[in-house]
Amino acid sequence: MMNDTTKKINFFDSSQKFIKNYYKRILILAVILLAFFLIFQIYVVYTNKQILKASIEFNLARSSNSPSDFQEQMNRLSSQKNFYGVLATLETIKIKLNKDDINSSNDDYLKLLNQKNLNSIYVSAIATHASYSFLDKINKDNEKDIVIKVNNFLSFIDSSLEFYEGFILEIQYLLSIIKQDNNNDSLIYDETQKLYQEIIDNDKVSALLKERVKTIHESQKYK
Q1: Burial annotation 96-131 (CB, 10 A radius, 16+ → b, else e)
Q2: What is the pLDDT of residue 172?
């Protein structure tokens, strides 16, 4: 009887020790999780404050009457890894392109496109923006270089995003038209005609884009 009582006491003590140790571990885990949660909350608050600050600075810079102050602010904001950093970089690229600083603009676009914190939708939008911006700067002297750069930008566009399919085709079509014009060739190239037909027949291409391409194509036919 005594042995049974002793065994029960020992079992009870062992159970208590196990429960205490178990709860200690749970408590330690809870403290660690709480610490991580607090750190995350602090990070979120800090990030939101940084974004708000960047938003205010960006809008103040845009309202500035001083081009040099605006450029200085955009250069500073462009280093930030948030939405306003992207907008600021696009503004600095615009300034550079207005000065025909093609190579530096290309480098800035590529830095944006290779940012790991941007998803494929943003990357595709930036690549499309870059392609059209560089098409506007093409001439006989820089045609080959610009074509290479534009084709590189196009490679960043996510082909699984149907929304961008029309833009890719239009940019390729415009490249063909530019090549034709720079060669002073009045005949429409087979490549141009093929791209035109592909745009017109593609159900994923918007009616507005099709109409735009039709207008260009008609003007090319009667040049």
Answers
A1: bbeeeebeebbebbeebbeeeebeeeebbbbbbbbb
A2: 94
61-107 pLDDT per residue, tens: 555 566 666 567 766 766 777 777 788 888 889 889 999 999 999 99
CB 180 within 8 A of CB 196: no
**What is the sign, positive or negative, of the torsion defined by CA atoms of 163, 164, 167, 172?**
negative
Report how far residue 127's alpha carbon sits from residue 152's, in angstroms, rounded to the nearest whole number: 9
The full length of the chain comes to 223
Average pLDDT over residues 194-217: 92
Decide: 180 and 189 in contact? Cβ < 8 Å. yes
Place of tokens 């503004």: 91
Q: How confident is the model at residue 118 (pLDDT cuts 50, 70, 90)?
A: confident
CB 109 within 8 A of CB 93: yes
